[in-house]
Amino acid sequence: MKTTLEIQKLQQHLADVWHAEPIETTVNASTRGLLNDAGDWDAPIGIKPKRTTIPLAIGIPDSTSLPKEALGAAANRVFNKPGEGAFTYGFGLGYNKLRLQLAENYSRERRFEVTEDWFQLCNGSSGAIDLICRTLIDPGDVILAESPTYMGTLRNFKALNAEVESIGMDSDGMLVERLPNLIDTLLQQGKRIKFIYTISNFHNPTGATLSLERKIRLLEIAAQYKILILDDDAYGALRFDDTPLPTLSGLSKGYGVITVGTFSKILATGLRIGWIHCHPDLLDAFNKMRFAMGLNQFMVRVISDYIDSGAMSDHAHKVRHIYKLKMNTLADALEKHCADYVDFTRPLGGFYIWISLKRGLEAEAVWRTAAEEGVSLTRGTNFFPNRIDDKQHLRLAFSWTDPDQLIDAATRLKHACERVLAGDPA
Ligand SMILES: Cc1ncc(COP(=O)(O)O)c(C=O)c1O
User: Fold this and answer.
1) What's the CATH number of domain 54-60+314-421, 3.10.450.50, 3.90.1150.10, 3.30.460.80, 3.90.79.10?
2) Where are the alpha helices (DSSP H) in 2-67?
3) Which of ligand 1's atoms lies nearest the C-alpha of 272?
4) 184-218: b or e for each residue (b if 16 or more CB lie within 10 Å)?
5) Smallest CA separation from ligand 1 atom 2, residue
6) For 390-409, what is each residue's pLDDT tens digit?
7) Which of 126, 263, 266 to mutate to test the pocket of ligand 1 (most atoms within 8 A of CB)?
């Protein structure tokens, strides 16, 4: 029998041994490459805001419209339902009823009939992307992606040792006509191109939507070279005018297109329910690569019940209106206060305005000075695979912040730009 003193000595010994072990040698090579990743919304180091910060750095839904009561009522109904479905493991593609509801919605909005077999429920759209990448990517594969793009997915590519080849964008989305040349060059170099990653609607970070002509052209080019398209439709439900847009999966009847979607942006990010939508044959492969013991069975039922109650469509209509109002409030304020310093295009949906700085203003200096003036923004560099942004951009997320604060944020940004131009940056 060991004495308390002996146990304490052992614990001290273990602490000495394990603290001495550097994390770099514990993790694998892929993780090592990610250890110093700055993250998505890093705050500038050493900056003390002069006043309470207005947050324009995070793309999460408006908090006042969160349907807590209706979700609470749905949770209550699920909890009190006879049976244990919500409290046991859920295998396979996920809760059937929610997949049926998704199928109904997609069949209506995308105008081609799909069944629940076209849907796999996942841990948000990022969980969906993770599963897709783990299933499809071999080390050294090339992924073609818009530049800039969502940095979360860039980490997935990096973790699997894929190479990213960038395609530029304008206000109509990816410059798809650049694809054939790029693909030809890569193929001549003996590279294996795995898929084209696009955020075709209400892009993060640029807010751009791929035009109908370009969506069609993208499908034609992808079919010509037989390269899959991964369409990250995280913001697809958030079109300001309520009218469904033509989608890559709708235009192609799902051939050659994998779509990921999520309830994060339309409802709440904490629910963690998203999905993969693609042809059932391919979906089956994704299902084989799922090793966790199913999703949160309670939450899939709560969302399904919430949709059943009819509350979802009213909520979607309401939040689209809120985001349109917020986007226009911020865009008007930027035009009024910052026209000398920034250029931007108003998005048709989603959460973001992407500004390019004028008059030689540097994004890093404006980002730091704006933080000191009391407005947090996201640097454009965070969205480029090599972290280089030649054109000096900042991303402004308007979804979370009150309209009054959005106006104040524009005046603070103006002061920041004035200070940088006057040689007084933070
Ligand atoms: C383009 C894009 N894809 C995917 C995600 C991940 O969302 P979630 O995993 O919450 O569905 C985000 C989150 O910001 C995003 O902007």
Assistant:
1) 3.90.1150.10
2) 4-19, 23-26, 29-34
3) 10
4) eebeeeeeebbbbbbbbbbbbbbbbbbbeebbbbb
5) 234
6) 889 999 999 999 999 999 99
7) 126
Q: Is the pTM of this model over 0.90?
A: yes
pLDDT > 80? residue 289: yes
Enumerate the CATH 3.40.640.10 domain ranges in the chain, comma separated. 69-309
Ligand 1 pocket: which of 149, 199, 232 to mutate (most atoms <8 Å of CB)? Answer: 232
- The topology under which CATH files domain 69-309 is Aspartate Aminotransferase; domain 2 (3.40.640)
Q: How sure is the predictor about 56, in pLDDT bands with cuts at 50, 70 and 90?
A: very high
Nearest Cα neighbor of 135 from 296, 235, 258, 249 is: 258
Q: Tell me the CA–centroid distance for residue 234 and ligand 1, in Å.
A: 6
- What angle do the packed helices 68-80 and 297-308 form, to 10 degrees? 110
Q: What single DSSP character describes residue 296? A: -
Please give all residues whose beta carbon lies within 6 A of any atom in ligand 1, as ranges.
Answer: 59, 124-126, 150, 152, 199, 204, 232, 234, 262, 264, 269, 274
- C-alpha of residue 6 to centroid of ligand 1, in Å: 50
Which ligand 1 atom sits closest to the C-alpha of 127? 9
Q: How far is the CA of 126 from the centre of ligand 1 (A)?
A: 6
Distance 39 CA to ligand 1 centre (A): 14
pLDDT tens for each residue of 156-188: 999 999 999 999 999 999 999 999 999 999 999
Residue 101 corresponds to which amino acid?
Q
The residue among 313, 312, 351 whose CA lies nearest residue 330 is 351
- Say whether 94 sits in a helix, a strand or coil: coil
What are 305's two structure tokens? 């019940």
Place of tokens 């209550």: 76
Residue 41 has pLDDT above 80, yes or no: no
Tokens in use for 111?
């105008």
Cα distance between residue 337 and residue 414, in whole Å: 6
